[in-house]
Amino acid sequence: MIVDEAEAKEGYVKAEVHNQITTIEFYHPKGNALPSRLLAKLTQEIDHASHDDSTNVILLRSVQHEVFCSGAYFNELMEIKNETEATRFFMGFANVINAMRKCSKLIVARIHGKSVGGGVGLAAAADYAIALEGADVRLSELSIGIGPYVIAPALIRKMGLSASQIAIDAHLWRNSDWARRKGLYAELHPNKESMEESIERLLGSLSKNSNAANSALKRMLWEGCENWDQLLAQRAATTGKLLMQEQTQSFLGGFNKTVVF
Amino acid sequence: MIVDEAEAKEGYVKAEVHNQITTIEFYHPKGNALPSRLLAKLTQEIDHASHDDSTNVILLRSVQHEVFCSGAYFNELMEIKNETEATRFFMGFANVINAMRKCSKLIVARIHGKSVGGGVGLAAAADYAIALEGADVRLSELSIGIGPYVIAPALIRKMGLSASQIAIDAHLWRNSDWARRKGLYAELHPNKESMEESIERLLGSLSKNSNAANSALKRMLWEGCENWDQLLAQRAATTGKLLMQEQTQSFLGGFNKTVVF
Amino acid sequence: MIVDEAEAKEGYVKAEVHNQITTIEFYHPKGNALPSRLLAKLTQEIDHASHDDSTNVILLRSVQHEVFCSGAYFNELMEIKNETEATRFFMGFANVINAMRKCSKLIVARIHGKSVGGGVGLAAAADYAIALEGADVRLSELSIGIGPYVIAPALIRKMGLSASQIAIDAHLWRNSDWARRKGLYAELHPNKESMEESIERLLGSLSKNSNAANSALKRMLWEGCENWDQLLAQRAATTGKLLMQEQTQSFLGGFNKTVVF
Q1: What number does CATH give the domain C5-193+226-253?
Q2: Model ipTM value
């Protein structure tokens, strides 16, 4: 996609439609981290594709780095001053996940690299994640005094309670094969060519399917999650409250702001 | 079991009791596909064994082909004229699955070969599936404009949301090892001898157990599925509606009627 | 921990706190089996650590034998005279599991050897189980005319319906790798050094975390299990009823009382 200088510096979310396939791409210079502004744009593009009659399937991807998504943008998180701001911040991922859930189209995610925190949530909320070897995952939240509360429902829905293993052990990376075995990834490919080929084949066939059949399947797969608007909002509030605790703030103060990975 | 000429041509469902074990066997010349008539017979035999005091465990199996069950009988599906007929047709598998669920006896399934669609549903609804290498699975429903709505609850119950992987990718076979790893099969054997030996051993021990203990375990394993009479009926209606859509009918018109695999 | 002669003979449950870590250790000369007396003590120690401000994480472990825990103490079970006693007996494990569930601290379990029945339930109810190769599992309940009803909710919560495989096949051991793949164990180590190192590292980091964050994660992981006080009590009653059945009592009568493994 075409990117201008400001976008290269500040990050972006862009969407394009070709042959009934909407590709949504995000980028941020700090390891594809997602500040509130980009999370809002992501939510908006998913909503838009959901209502777009010329779209039959969505591809979610990010660019460049060896990282798919390093989660919430840490620099923004460090500047939060109170619980209201904190809750609003964590609602960013809640809104994206709820948009993915309520989207009428099936969402395929291309996971070409590592994910942390909220990034793992995106992979989990996708209907079908196709990953590249090396797409390791880690939930680091607990180690800074908060927790992966907002994304946990999406993870547990897909991986079962195995999700708790990465939530509890906040320091350990789990490799991409672990993520495949646990059901986070539907496919794991040894090289980019194989991954791209598989994505192309699947998008090709899903885009030619009956739109009604695709949408009915999407609805069925998310049955039982109707309370997630409320649930994820509560989870954002819980996380916001923990973030403002004295102990958490002193953890954060000790952090080298440039380290995400 | 003894089979006459008409049965060899039209397919059959038969049941026999020996040593507290009821064996239910089905057969159809087209890859053990199941027309409505055989699905009704299967439901009836499962119900009968459920109430039979001389039965302590059930073995479900099919014969001949390298195929365990190729799902709904396509030729019958192609002749459906309206939504009422379509819903009735899809209720065939709903009734079998609900009979398996409500059956007071534990059901062991012998999966000696591939399954498609509804056939995968039978493996999922069994309490303990013992499979042979090569017993690959595929849900082809989405590619013809419908979806595996009726069998999905049984699949998701056993495999978790990993079931969605085969529902979304309707063109790809998943191999028997995938099915074992995802929990669809409790055991996977490298050869027939090993499979038969394991089935015999398990049936032997279950048939000698306390009937009350077996039945209590069966009930416990299906707790939380009490709404499936309604749920699967709704799912059959959803599938019936999709089948009658213009786009689906034109997909079906383009099919070579002899191809199931 | 310091053990006197009576404790070595009768078994014990002991707890110690060091550096925000409470270690709870149990022992019984018969393969770390748990009589009612030790189950009550275990429940009590878990409750105590839950309310202890100087505790931030719990380690649950057993000693000596190549066995982590061989479940309910068989000699006690064989002497039960009526349904009331039987239900009370099975409430022992129900109480421990509910104490683990309601405990405000995360519980790490060190599974250094095999488990049977209720022992498997302890591994399942732990928040994070770190096991040693050879820590195989078996649910033998069905074969003696009862069933793993009390522990099943904990198993199914962690392993999904794969738990039913060991419930149905009461004679077969599943190896430690199976248990890891099914999610019962978060980690499986090839040798003791590696297991101890991993436990030490994890306890070290969890003990330094924000207590509020740890507790919020614990609560989140057990959401949806609020009815287990009632559920497990019903399950204990079901098991008690089955135990007193004539057929079960005659099974038990035929048992060599010294054989557990």
Answers
A1: 3.90.226.10
A2: 0.93
